[in-house]
Amino acid sequence: MELNQLARTIFDDILAQGGRVYIVGGSVRDVILKNSGEHDVDVEVYHMTYEQLHDLLAKYGVVNTFGKMFAIMQLENLKGYDFALPRQEKKVGEKHQDFEVIINPELPLEKAVKRRDLTMNALMYDYQNEEIIDLCGGLDDIKKHQVRCVDPQSFVEDPLRVLRIAQFIARFEMTVEEKTLDLCYQMVQQGMLKHLSIERIYGEYCKILMSPRPSIGFEFLKRIKALPFYLSDLITTHQRLDYHPEGDVFTHTMLVIDVAALTKHKTDAPLSFMWSCLLHDIGKPLVTTADGHAPQHNEAGVKVFQKVKMIQSKKQRQYISTMIMYHMHLMNMARNHGKDLSYLRLLKKIDGKVSMNDLICISCCDKLGRGKVAQEQYDAFFTFIEDKIARLGMQAPQPLINGYILIQNGFQQNKQLKMILDEAYDLQLQGLSQEKILRSLKKKYE
Ligand SMILES: Nc1ccn([C@@H]2O[C@H](COP(=O)(O)OP(=O)(O)OP(=O)(O)O)[C@@H](O)[C@H]2O)c(=O)n1
């Protein structure tokens, strides 16, 4: 394993003092999976007391301790390394922190691994012997590309693990072993996931969305009936087969997010973009008619989005809401040979909230998420957009008239001003000069 030189020096010191060092958790798994990328290194130190380990670490720098009960220690000058003592955990309440923790430096490894969620996450790297210790069959499961829980009894103690499975299988393109899948289903049926905080759920959803194949994670959540209402409602919403040969809205959404996963690096806000793709059609269940039409599903989607509480950042909410609102405008314009004016109006509406680039990306993903898209249709869409961009740009034109100018020209500062400003901008887009806009507005409002 690749380890920092200071970490090696500390580990050697621990061994010299009679301790034993094991690296555990995601960093070991990721080495086996040949998964590159930054990862914190979790170090479990055996045969030393809390005080002994603390004193030893203090020789190398300032020690910070986290989670009084978990006794996790970090060195300020050794970022990304967490030192902990072996422990057993017992759930004592419904909340995430409701655990009784029993630290035991002499805990047998077989017992220590029991608190881990999945076999691939229970692998240990023995620093002294430079070998992987696999007490739960994690290596075999990785070979089979499957996730499997270590111990059903301890697995259920943290319901977040159900969502962790969803993100792991999406990230590593794996399947879920049958008994583990049944266990997850039972946990959902028993309402265990209801106690999870929205922040924790959001974290796992983000990991699913930023994975190479997000659909794998959401298909799993569908199978165990753990989807929130705004996604599960998509399953029973059918669409017109001539527009959507792929079938219901959920199936379409899954195709869209998988294409989006390949496109996200081209966008200005990859995570928010992925969320937008997941949620772009959440309005459809509300407005879809018996023959599969979904008029104004974008506006309905914005309303449903207000109920999606797990996204809390104001900026992200504004981005996603704007994407839901305008996700079909470019496509509709291309279909109806939209006028330059509607394109310019669209630029103004999205201005500062999302970029035209990101709107183009979501339109492409939406189009590609229909299974087989006729090449001519796709080409026509691109020609349309390229033409508009070449002539009219990607940014909304700067307004010639602002509130200050209106007031200087005798308009009152009242509620109507905003409406008049919109009107002024529209006249500008129609090609009127500043002088002519003011003249026209004065005539109308005086
Ligand atoms: N609900 C949880 C969270 C964590 N773990 C254990 O703690 C380790 C470290 O957890 P964490 O850093 O949260 O996740 P990783 O598995 O490292 O995965 P990621 O790549 O998402 O960080 C996991 O490998 C697993 O052994 C667990 O059993 N149950």
UniProtKB/TrEMBL annotation:
Residues 174-228 form the tRNA nucleotidyltransferase/poly(A) polymerase RNA and SrmB- binding domain. SUPFAM superfamilies: Nucleotidyltransferase, Poly A polymerase C-terminal region-like. Its cofactor is Mg(2+). It holds the Pfam family HD. Residues 21-148 form the Poly A polymerase head domain. One of its GO terms (molecular function) is ATP binding. Residues 249-351 form the HD domain. One of its GO terms (biological process) is tRNA processing. Keywords: ATP-binding, Magnesium, Metal-binding, Nucleotide-binding, Nucleotidyltransferase, RNA repair, RNA-binding, Transferase, tRNA processing. The keyword RNA-binding applies. InterPro entries: HD/PDEase_dom, HD_domain, NT_sf, PolA_pol_head_dom, PolyA_RNA-bd, tRNA_CCA-adding_enzyme. Belongs to the tRNA nucleotidyltransferase/poly(A) polymerase family. This is Uncharacterized protein.
